[in-house]
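Hi Y.,

Following your request, here is the sequence exactly as I used it, all 503 residues.
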Amino acid sequence: MDIQKMHEKPPYGMIAILFFGAFIALLNNTLLNVALPTIMVEFDVKPSVVQWLTTGYMLVNGILIPASAFFIQKFTNRRLFLTAMTLFTLGTLLSMIAPAFGVLIAGRMIQASGSALMMPLLMNVMLTAFPVERRGTAMGIFGLVMITAPAIGPTLSGWIIEHYEWRVLFGIVLPFAVLTIVFAFFKLRNITPNRNMKLDFFSLILSSIGFGGLLYGFSTAGDKGWGAPIVYGTIIIGAIALITFILRQLRMEDPMLEFRIYKYPMFALSSAISVVLSMAMFSAMILTPLYVQTIRGISPLHSGLLMLPGALAMGIMSPITGKLFDKYGARILAIIGLTITVITTFYLSKLNMDSGYYYIMLIYTARMFGISMVMMPVMTNGLNQLPMAANPHGTAINNTLQQVSGAIGSALLLTIMDKRIETTGAELAADAAAAGNAPTSAEGLAALKAELASKAMLDGINHAFFVSTIVAVVALLLTFFIKRVTPPKYEAPISEEKEPSTT
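Below is the corresponding structure, written out as C-alpha cells. Let me know if you'd prefer a different format.
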C-alpha cells in the first residue's frame, strides 16, 4: 500500500474495528476481579488457587507481548487480528460454560493468548496509518481505549455480580467479540509491512521464562512475602533468563525483540518515564480501594464508583491531550501532568480515619487527570523517533515494560505498606500498654485491637502513598529532558542507523 496516500486518507473504518476488538479485550482484563470470591465459593477452591484466573492471564500476556514484534512483522495485520480475536472469542465461550475450575483456567489462558496481541498490533497499525504530525491525536484516541476499558471493568462487574451470576461477565463480552470477527473478516485489509522471518525458539523460551518469572515473582510477593522461595526463586531465574535473552538479541542479526532501538535517546527516555509512572499509577489503583474498603468500610461497588470519574477523566482527556501533543509536543504536557500527579499523590498520603468519600474521589480524579497528560504523549514522542521498521519492536517493548513495571511497583509499595503497618502496629500496642488504661472485657480488648489495626493500616497506606509521591517526582525530573523528535528518513537496518535527530 502507498504510505503517502494512506497518510492523506487513513483507513478510519478499519481502525475502528481494531479499536473495538482491543476495547473488549482490555475490558475483560479487569472484569473478573470482583467476581473472584463468588467463583471461589462455587468451585470450592482456595484464594491462592482462584487468583490464577488473573495471575495466569497476566503471565500469558507477559510471555506473548514480547513475541508480538515477531508476529506483527511475519504475518499480515488482517490475519493476525482475526487469529487473535478468534482465540479470544473461543476462550470467552469456554470460560462462560466452564463446568470445572480447570476448564475456566484454560478458557482464561486462551483468552489471554488472543488479547496479548491486540494492543501491540493496534499501536503498530496507528503508527503506520498516520503521519508523525497527526500521531498525537490518533494515539490520544488509542489512549482512550487503553485507559477507559480496564478502568470501568471493576465498576461494571461489581454491578453485574450484585444482580446476576459471574458467567454473565463472559456472556456480555461474547456477542461483541463475534460481531468484531464478522466485521473484521469483511472490512479489514493489510497495511503494515511484512517480511519473511524465522522465529528463534531459544529466544522465545528465554523471553517467556524471563518476563514470566519476573511478573509472577513480583505479583505474588505481596501475598506470599519476599522470603518465600517461590517468590525470590522465580525473580532470580527470571532476571538471569532476561539478561541472557537481551544479550542474545544484541548479538543476533535479526532478533525477536530489537533492543538496539534504545540508542534513540527520546525512546529510551520515554521508556524510563513510562516505567516510573506505571509503578506509581498501578500502585494507587490498589492502595485507594484498600483504604476505601478496609479503613472506611465502603462496599466494593461504591469503591469502584469512586474510581470511575478518574477513569472517565482519563478517557475524555486522552484525545484532547493527543491534539495538544501534536501542537505543543510532549515536554510541556508531561511537566504539567506530572506536577498535578505529584501534588495529588502527596494529598493521598495525608488521608485520615474519616476522610470524605467525595474528597477522595476528587483527589483521585485530579490525579488520573494529571496522568492522562503524560502517558500517551511521552510514549508517542519516543515512538516517533523510531524508523517504521522498528515500530513493532517499540510497541512490544513499551507494552511489556508497562506490565512488568506495574507488577514491580505494586509489589514494592505493598511491601513498604506491610512493613510500616507492622512497625506502627507494634508502636501503638506498646503505647496502649504503657498508658495502662486497656479495657478488661473481651469485647473491649477486641475493639481496641481492631482500632489499633485500623490506625496501623492507615499509617501504612499513607506511607506507601508518600513513597509513590517520591517516585512521581523522579518521573517529573526526567520530563525536563524531553525534546521533540523527527523520525529518520533513511530506512536502514536498526544496527546501521545513524545518530537520530532531536529538535
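DSSP finds 18 helices and two strands in the chain.

Thanks again,
Q.
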